């Protein structure tokens, strides 16, 4: 489904929480490309900056978060790039929902309990598609519900009359109401049971194939990411440390952190992996180690890892992936520290 045409590009993005001496750097020089029609998974332990990236890209970063550098561009089909960091508040309002929508963790709880599903779905349409007449809005709302696997008969229901999975589907229907080009899903199914999670994600991937939107998919669950993403970017300490096709990351993770993450979760398919986990815990943003932030936990660290930050670069072979690791073709021969 995915091609090579970029729909969203993030370059050198930096985000701090707070200012001055007390500022903590939550994102550091993040480069990321979302291609048209693909599902791009973002992985990494809690606190590595996945949500900060989603919020920064959509300009929804809550204070004290500030974007301190970098660029985010949205590329319209057929040409023309929109600088998202330069949009005015009014332009942003039009851009969100219309071109890009977001489903956050627990989004189902943001449905208004005193309004029916019908009124909440048609509200989005009324605000953004004023040309639609009332019966057209209702017809579209019915269509949207069916799209996410809920019978259109449930349109008059109030949120409390629906299960958690159904409410989350309603939020997904709402996110798709205006046929956006990009849907950002931050832990969209984490509050649901495993069977429901897979059901919803399967439906989403099918819809993506039908409607052609692109998805940024954020979850703690690496096995879900491998199953549903085309490509995966792995984050550590506010940086992207590896980015490649989901199948390449699964078969052959190059960054020792990616390897550790994959060995922290049981595989759902294929050969069993030994679960070794990752020693230690992620660094505090206020006390980030020098050099590669992962080096204190890395069993393969070299001397250079403690002093110099490796940049995200393509390894020597032809595999279309990038890795930020001194073990992969960046460093002159160094001796292992172990
Ligand atoms: N309001 C804030 N003030 C200070 N630091 C913050 C604030 N919000 C987030 N952070 C810090 O920014 C870092 C990135 O947080 P973020 O929520 O983006 O991580 P995450 O990878 O999405 O984590 P999780 O998977 O737990 O949601 C964390 O270390 C967090 O403590």
TrEMBL record:
The keyword Nucleotide-binding applies. Signal peptide: none annotated. SMART domains: AAA (SM00382). Pfam families: ABC_tran (PF00005), oligo_HPY (PF08352). It comes from the Bacteria. GO terms for molecular function: ATP binding; ATP hydrolysis activity. GO terms for biological process: peptide transport. Belongs to the ABC transporter superfamily. This is Peptide/nickel transport system ATP-binding protein. It comes from Streptomyces atratus. The lineage of its organism: Bacteria, Bacillati, Actinomycetota, Actinomycetes, Kitasatosporales.
């Amino acid at each position: 489904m995915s091609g090579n045409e970029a729909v969203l590009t993030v370059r050198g993005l930096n985000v701090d929480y707070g200012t001055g001496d007390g500022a903590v750097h939550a994102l550091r020089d993040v480069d990321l490309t979302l291609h048209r029609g693909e599902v791009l998974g973002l992985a990494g332990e809690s606190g590595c900056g996945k949500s900060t990236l989603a919020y920064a890209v959509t300009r929804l970063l809550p204070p004290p978060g500030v974007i301190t550098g970098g660029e985010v561009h949205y590329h319209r089909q057929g040409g023309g790039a929109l600088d998202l960091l330069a949009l005015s508040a009014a332009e942003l309002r039009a851009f969100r929902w219309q071109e890009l929508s977001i489903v956050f963790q627990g989004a189902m709880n943001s449905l208004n309990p005193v309004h029916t599903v019908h009124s909440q779905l048609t509200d989005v349409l009324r605000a953004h598609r004023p040309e639609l007449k009332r019966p057209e809005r209702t017809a579209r709302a019915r269509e949207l519900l069916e799209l996410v696997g809920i019978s259109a008969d449930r349109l008059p229901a109030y949120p409390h009359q629906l299960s958690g999975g159904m409410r989350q589907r309603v939020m997904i229907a709402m996110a798709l109401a205006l046929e956006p080009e990009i849907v950002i899903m931050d832990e969209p199914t984490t509050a649901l049971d495993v069977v429901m999670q897979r059901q919803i994600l399967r439906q989403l991937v099918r819809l993506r194939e039908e409607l052609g939107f692109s998805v940024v998919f954020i979850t703690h669950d690496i096995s879900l990411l491998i199953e549903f993403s085309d490509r995966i970017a792995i984050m550590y300490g506010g940086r992207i440390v590896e980015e490649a096709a989901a199948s390449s990351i699964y078969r052959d993770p190059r960054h020792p952190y990616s390897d550790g993450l994959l060995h922290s979760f049981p595989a759902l398919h294929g050969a069993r992996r030994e679960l070794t986990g990752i020693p230690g815990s992620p660094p505090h943003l206020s006390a980030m180690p020098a050099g590669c932030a992962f080096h204190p936990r890395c069993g393969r660290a070299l001397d250079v890892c403690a002093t110099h930050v490796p940049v995200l670069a393509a390894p020597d072979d032809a595999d279309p992936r990038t890795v930020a690791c001194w073990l992969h073709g960046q460093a002159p021969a160094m001796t292992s520290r172990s």
